[in-house]
């Protein structure tokens, strides 16, 4: 437990916006559904409660729920005093929470492979792997931020969708906001258009919150304004995050991403996704093979438990959509910016990055 506590202290000294952290023998996490008006922190020692928080989107964002794969296995190891069967069951539970998010799946599998190694110090091995994954994820954010910032020019207005920032990652900038934050820190004069992102309004509630905290000029727009702004020449780049990238470069991201990509293509605006190599799923050939999570229709017909549609109204909520690779100007990773043809460039990335991709 000492290494975990030292890591968390180090993160806190860096003034990161941590979505999840371990302190006083408990896991703590911010309820992202209540931001920005309430900063409600929950605590648990139970992997079942952590899994529920991921499933109901109290904790959300591909990077954050990816690290929950590590935190969950660590909790299960502590809770069970290193019982492997309990740990394996926890892995199954965690992987069932958000089926589209490959980061979570890969992290759980990586943790379980360490837990299943021979030896008596199972908890120690799991703790060490948790520290390694958390340090790696934070390093990814800084590296992909630097790589992506090279795509941003002084004076650019950048459109982003949903929330792919610090609280959706390891605390620095997540995916898309790592790029935007690095460009801002480099002294580039930029402006961000953040889409509100129905039905949870992550863009309005959390992206705007983080941009304000980082001191980055921004304007909130409704999701259906992006095409108009691009047609008026008010947007020079689009940068979004990702929940899964197929082996051919097709992108699974928050519902609404596809329509922004179409508008960008029609108006000659470069469309980028920022992601870690861990989010690229080489076992999935194309976007058509990605399982898209469908959430309860009540999340569309209500907001924060208040109805916004007549009783009995039918609604549909696919949580993600698929953006074809021909609409994507580049895939920004910690290894560099991948460009078409994506099948070959992503295969090269896999070869150079090893088993962690």
Please tally the helical runs, counting DSSP H or I stretches of 4 or more residues: 12
Taking all Cα atoms into account, the compactness measure Rg is 19 Å
Shape, per Cα inertia axes: globular
Given helix and strand content, the structural type is alpha/beta
Note the beta-strand portion: 15-25%
The overall pLDDT average reads 94
* Topology pattern, helix = H, strand = E: HEEEHHHHHEHEHEHEEEHEEHEEEEEH
Structure description:
α3 packs antiparallel against α6 (122-149) and α5 packs antiparallel against α6. Strands 6-5-4-7-10-15-16 form a seven-stranded mixed β-sheet, sandwiched between helices. Helix content is 41%, strand content 16%. It contains twelve helices and 16 strands. By secondary structure, it is α/β, with parallel strands linked by helices.
Features of the shown structure:
357 residues; alpha/beta; single chain; seven-stranded mixed β-sheet; 16% strand; four-stranded mixed β-sheet
Short summary:
Helix content is 41%, strand content 16%. By secondary structure, it is α/β, with parallel strands linked by helices. The strands form 4 sheets. The protein has a 7-stranded mixed beta sheet with strand order 6-5-4-7-10-15-16, sandwiched between helices. A 4-stranded mixed beta sheet has the order 11-8-9-14, covered by helices on one side. Strands 1-2-3 form a 3-stranded antiparallel beta sheet.
How would the blueprint of this fold be written?
Layout: H1 2-13, E1 20-23, E2 26-30, E3 41-44, H2 47-55, H3 62-79, H4 84-95, H5 102-115, H6 122-149, E4 157-160, H7 176-185, E5 191-195, H8 202-214, E6 218-221, H9 226-231, E7 237-240, E8 244-246, E9 251-254, H10 257-266, E10 271-274, E11 280-281, H11 298-301, E12 302-303, E13 306-307, E14 320-323, E15 330-333, E16 336-338, H12 342-353
Parallel strand pairs: 4-5, 4-7, 5-6, 7-10, 8-11, 10-15
Antiparallel strand pairs: 1-2, 2-3, 8-9, 9-14, 12-13, 15-16
Helix pairs in contact: 2-3, 3-4, 3-5, 3-6, 4-5, 5-6, 6-7
């Amino acid at each position: 437990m000492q290494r975990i506590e030292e890591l968390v202290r180090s993160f806190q000294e860096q003034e990161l916006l941590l979505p999840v952290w371990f302190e006083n023998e408990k896991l703590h996490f911010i309820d992202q559904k209540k931001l920005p008006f309430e900063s409600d922190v929950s605590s648990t020692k139970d992997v079942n409660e952590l899994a529920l928080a991921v499933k109901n989107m109290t904790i959300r964002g591909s990077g954050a729920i990816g690290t929950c794969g590590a935190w969950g296995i660590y909790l299960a190891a502590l809770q069970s005093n290193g019982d492997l069967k309990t740990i394996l069951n926890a892995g199954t539970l965690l992987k069932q929470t958000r089926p589209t998010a490959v980061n979570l799946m890969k992290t759980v599998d990586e943790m379980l492979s360490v837990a299943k190694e021979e030896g008596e110090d199972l908890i120690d091995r799991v703790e060490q792997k948790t520290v390694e994954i958390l340090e790696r994820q934070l390093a990814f954010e800084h590296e992909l931020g630097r790589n992506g910032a090279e795509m941003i020019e002084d004076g650019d207005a950048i459109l982003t969708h949903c929330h792919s920032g610090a609280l959706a990652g390891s605390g620095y900038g997540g995916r898309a906001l790592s790029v935007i934050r690095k460009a801002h820190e480099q002294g580039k004069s930029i402006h961000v258009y953040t889409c509100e992102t129905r039905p949870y309004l992550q863009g309005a509630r959390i992206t705007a919150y983080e941009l304000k905290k980082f001191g980055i000029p921004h304007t909130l727009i409704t999701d259906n304004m992006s095409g108009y702004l691009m047609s008026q020449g008010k947007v020079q780049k689009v940068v979004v995050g990702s929940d899964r990238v197929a082996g051919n470069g097709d992108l699974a991201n928050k519902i609404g991403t596809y329509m922004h990509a179409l508008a960008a293509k029609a108006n000659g605006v470069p469309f980028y996704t920022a992601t870690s190599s861990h989010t690229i799923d080489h076992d999935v050939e194309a976007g058509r093979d990605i399982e898209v999570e469908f959430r309860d229709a009540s999340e569309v017909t209500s907001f924060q438990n208040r109805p916004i549609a007549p009783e009995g109204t039918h609604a549909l909520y696919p949580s993600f959509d698929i953006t074809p690779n021909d609409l994507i100007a580049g895939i920004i990773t910690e290894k560099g910016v991948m460009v078409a043809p994506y099948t070959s460039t992503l295969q090269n990335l896999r070869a150079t990055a090893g088993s962690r991709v």
